[in-house]
Specification:
The protein has ten helices and five strands, in the order H-H-H-H-E-H-E-E-H-E-H-E-H-H-H. The protein has helices spanning about 1-10, 15-45, 55-65, 75-90, 105, 135-145, 165-170, 190-200, 205-215, 225-240, and strands at about 90-95, 110-115, 120-130, 155-160, 180-185. Helix 6 links the parallel strand 3 and strand 4. Helix 4 (about 75-90) crosses helix 9 (about 205-215). This is DNA methyltransferase. It comes from Candidatus Contendobacter odensis Run_B_J11.
């Protein structure tokens, strides 16, 4: 505001203000790139011959999930699983929608939509929650399932909060009503742990897929601080292994 006032009072020209603003933005960008390059180089230096165990990866990602402003991460946790195991599952995910994009806006059924390889029909939908899943959430899912162009096999909530047994039981009641779509609520870290032990031999592929997804997200979805935090956490984990 002070700079705008200076322009209005002719203490500096608008051209000078523009050039200085661009200079500062470029400096901030270069500093960001330098920090990321430094973290990536440090990670390469600490990477040993023994890969992280499945449990160590669970701990690493749980630490990342506990950081501030991490609401996008559950989507990436599940998406990375499908990317890493696509050939084994013969299933793939559709392109992820922008963070905070409403389903009504995008026309999507869930935050993650899974198809069989070679087919665009959605067979599984995931909805992520950083809070408890409620009865209303289940009812909303049933409404979306009813409007889906083709039968969905399962609609899965993944939450970072506690799972209420009565809500979980309520979800199971809609299997017949929906014509065979199973609705269930999964714990986010529990999902990750089971996946990594089931596909233990590709656990490093999973970790690399998760890292790539995190770093590729726009800063509006995964902040620069959160990206740097993951690289730092991974470096510590791998240097301890």
């Amino acid at each position: 505001m002070q700079l705008l006032e200076d322009v209005a009072e002719s203490r500096i020209t608008a051209d000078v203000l523009f050039v200085e603003t661009v200079r500062i933005l470029l400096q901030l960008r270069d500093e960001k790139f330098a920090r990321m390059a430094s973290l990536m180089n440090a990670l390469e230096r600490t990477r040993g011959s023994l890969p992280l165990s499945s449990e160590a990866i669970v701990t690493l990602i749980a630490q990342h999930l506990a950081c501030k402003n991490a609401s996008r991460l559950p989507v990436l946790i599940v998406a990375a699983a499908y990317q890493a195991a696509e050939d084994r599952l013969a299933e793939s995910i559709l392109s992820l929608n922008a963070h905070n994009a409403a389903d009504l806006q995008t026309g999507s059924i869930g935050d993650i939509e899974v198809c069989l390889v070679g087919d665009k029909a959605i067979v599984t939908a995931y909805e992520m929650k950083m809070k408890r899943v409620t009865f209303d959430d289940i009812d909303a899912a049933v409404a979306k399932i009813a409007k889906a162009p083709k039968q969905i096999n399962n609609y899965l909530f993944v939450t970072t909060d506690q799972i209420a047994p009565d809500v979980s039981d309520y979800a199971t009641k809609f299997y017949e009503e929906t014509g065979g779509t199973e609705i269930a609520i999964l714990d986010c870290i529990g999902f990750l742990r089971y996946f990594l032990h089931l596909f233990h031999r590709i656990r490093v592929d999973y970790l690399n897929a998760y890292q790539a997804l995190v770093l590729d997200e726009p800063d509006s979805a995964v902040s620069q601080t959160l990206k740097e935090a993951f690289l730092a956490l991974r470096q510590v984990a791998e240097s301890d292994e």
